[in-house]
Specification:
9 helices; mainly alpha; RNA_pol_sigma-70_dom; about 180 residues; DNA binding; 2 domains; Rna Polymerase Sigma Factor, Chain: A; Arc Repressor Mutant, subunit A
Length: about 180
Amino acid sequence: MNTQGIALNVARNDIDWNQFLPLHYKRLIGFIKKYISNRNDIDDIAQTTCLEALRSWPSYAGQSRPETWFFGIALNIIRSYYRQHYRHLRVEPLSETIELTLSSGDDPFVNTLCHQQMQTAIRYLEKQPANISAMMEMIIDEGCYQDIALAQSIPVGTVRSRLSRTREALRQAIK
């Protein structure tokens, strides 16, 4: 069945979920991947979206196409995911990381230089505003620009420019 057929059935409030979900599930996964990088979380959010759509269908007002409504549910669940997962960012002391890094090298001069640069970087980052520190933590934890933008409710371009300025200032501080 095509999307138009599904939209026509909406007027009668009897959508065929056995056709609707398979038709849009692959797009749903792609949509969620734009915002979430963890595969397990992607699957969980997709399942939650489907369940929430099924649960909320009786209250669907028909003011938009079912697909738009469905992806709106997914976006709201993604926002909730970020509120839950990034409310209190996990911050681990970098001093342990420094010690592990330094103990792995053989050259004392290189170890000392690395130690000094890391201490300078830590002091610099500790002085940054909370939103910049959160961005840097998310990037270090292999987050992507889209994840950060969504978590902080700012455009992706703003994330890029702030991180670029922070990285350049950090390079200058380390020199």
